[in-house]
């Protein structure tokens, strides 16, 4: 098992990209709230009334942000878990740091092409698939590393 010291550049890389992803996650939540307020559409009557908005569940702009946020909630926590476990396998530093970087950049690109500047396919699919492959790779590496403990 690898020693997980905070001075280890791979650990530092994981921490930096995890923080970036956390900020990205809360940013999409904020973008959803801004879209709701600027469009005057809310999910709850108590939110709509003071702002003279209306309750609406199918606004296309708000729903696009919500779906992007939901997609982040379905994917980023798995990266945090698998990335932390992957660190314990003592991966090659340059490779692990590249995986973390590409994962974070791809998730940011995914939000851009999904919610901010919707682009035609396959832009979103590629931005979704690359991080998925990285998670699968890290998960398999962790399983292969520790399988002998069974």
Describe the structure.
This protein is mainly alpha-helical and 150 residues long. The chain has helices spanning 9-39, 45-48, 60-87, 93-116, 123-146; strands at 41-42, 54-55.
Question: Could you list some keywords that capture this structure?
Answer:
150 residues, mainly alpha, two-stranded parallel sheet, 5 helices, 74% helix, 3% strand, elongated
What's this model, at a glance?
A two-stranded parallel sheet has the order 1-2. The chain contains five helices and two strands, in the order H-E-H-E-H-H-H.
* N to C succession of SSEs: HEHEHHH
Please summarize the sheet with the most strands: 2 strands, parallel
The strand order across the widest sheet is: 1-2
Strand fraction equals under 5%
H/I helix tally:
5
Distance between the termini: 15 Å
- Rg: 19 Å
How many strand units?
A: 2
Helical residue percent band: over 70%
Q: Specify the structural class.
A: mainly alpha
Mean pLDDT across residues = 94
The global form is elongated
Uncertain runs with pLDDT below 50, 5 residues or more? none
